[in-house]
């Protein structure tokens, strides 16, 4: 079976910026 690598990458690309912006900058 072929894993939906493209879908995983899309979700990662969408989740990464959201996590970066939602997380307050740690000092």
TrEMBL record:
Record protein name field: NADH dehydrogenase subunit 1
Gene: ND1
Organism lineage: Eukaryota, Metazoa, Chordata, Craniata, Vertebrata
Keyword Mitochondrion: yes
The entry's keywords: Mitochondrion
UniProt keyword Mitochondrion present: yes
